[in-house]
Specification:
The chain is mostly beta strands. The chain has no helices and five strands. Strands 1-5-4-3-2 form a five-stranded antiparallel β-sheet, with no helix packed on it.
């Protein structure tokens, strides 16, 4: 079974969905909550430089990552 690197439990070590490098991620004590009510994060991969946006799935605490469409999305 192949593990999708863009969806990992938040307590696991997340991987970049583009280059699969280990991301330096730690959940915030006071996270940003997006307009849909999800705990949200923005980060950059230190290996390939891609801008990432992630949310924590409240059902299973999985960090779901996706690439931002441009640097402008990464305020």
């Amino acid at each position: 079974m192949r593990i999708d690197p863009s969806t990992t439990a938040a307590h696991s070590i997340p991987l970049c969905p583009k280059c699969h490098a280990v991301l330096n991620f730690c959940r915030s004590v006071t996270p940003d909550i997006d307009s849909s009510g999800f705990e949200s994060y923005r980060l950059d991969c230190q290996e390939c430089g891609v801008a990432l946006y992630g949310i924590i799935d409240p059902a299973d605490d999985a960090l779901i990552l996706s690439e931002c469409s441009s640097r402008a999305d990464n305020f």
